[in-house]
Amino acid sequence: MATGGQVGDLSGLNESLTSLTSLSQFGDTIAPPLSGVGYDAANTPYSSTAPAELNSIIQAAAAKYGVDPNLVRAVIGTESSFHTDAVSGAGAKGLMQLMDSTAKSMGVTNPFDPIQNIDGGTRYLSYLVNKYNGNEKVALAAYNAGPGRIDRLGISTDEELMANLSKLPAETQRYVSKVLAAR
Prior knowledge:
mainly alpha, 9 helices, disordered N terminus, single chain, Lysozyme, globular
């Protein structure tokens, strides 16, 4: 686990993770890293089982940013199948598949650190849910395709998203459905 640069106050987590000095100590409870680049969240089998070590991190971040922990868990399962070292073909990294610019803007210095990644990813998801006035489908599409693409199409409600779904990449169309089904 990285020291320093930890995002936010995740009270109680330090105590539960004090015995961990590196990610390798998660052992077999977290899936091994994906080999190489080219991870495609929308086409990868979903893992619905969050390792116990991650549940407290997910709960704390969800409470901190006012996001349903089941939504956070579904995003992580869909994005990385709980692989802490996942890297996509586009360069998204870690459990919540943060792009470098997004990670930096959310204060994440190590996207492979579960605490930082979940905190930053949940913070970003909360930002998107708020930006789109609680329209979670739109927020999920923006999480996957980027808010700029969603905004250029003039989509701001779940109804508008469904009416314009065919204008979005096939990956984003599958992604929204996959996350919602996993929730």
